[in-house]
Amino acid sequence: MNNTIKFCRKSGYVNNIFGRRSHFVNINDKNFNVRNFQERAAINAPIQGSAAEIMRLAMIRLDKKLKNQKNNKTKMLLQIHDELIFETPKEEVKRISKIIVDEMSSVSISDQHSFSIPLTVDLNSGENWGVLH
Predict the structure, then answer these.
(1) Beta strand ranges found along 1-133 (DSSP E)
(2) 89-100 pLDDT tens trace
């Protein structure tokens, strides 16, 4: 955390694991509250930014895979933080569930990165979103 703050004070930005930058122009502000807020944001940005990037990669892969499926009626409806919501006919649930888990967990390896720790995916299905939570 200290290294992240030190780097950000010098450069004015931090990177996530994919190299995307988040800029913090007030990291050296004279006002303690402003500076403190920017420091916390600079520490958090690489973690949150990396998680968001992983989710975007998973969504792109899933979208391509679902479009290539024959007689597919499954639709990706919504992203909520680290969750994806799909609308799937009952007869497709089993087949699509495997595709979703495979594609989302495969995001751990790409041309830009490779994680040594596997990404795990939890999947639930139900009649409506309320049943799942």
Answers:
(1) 13-15, 21-23, 75-80, 83-87
(2) 999 999 999 999
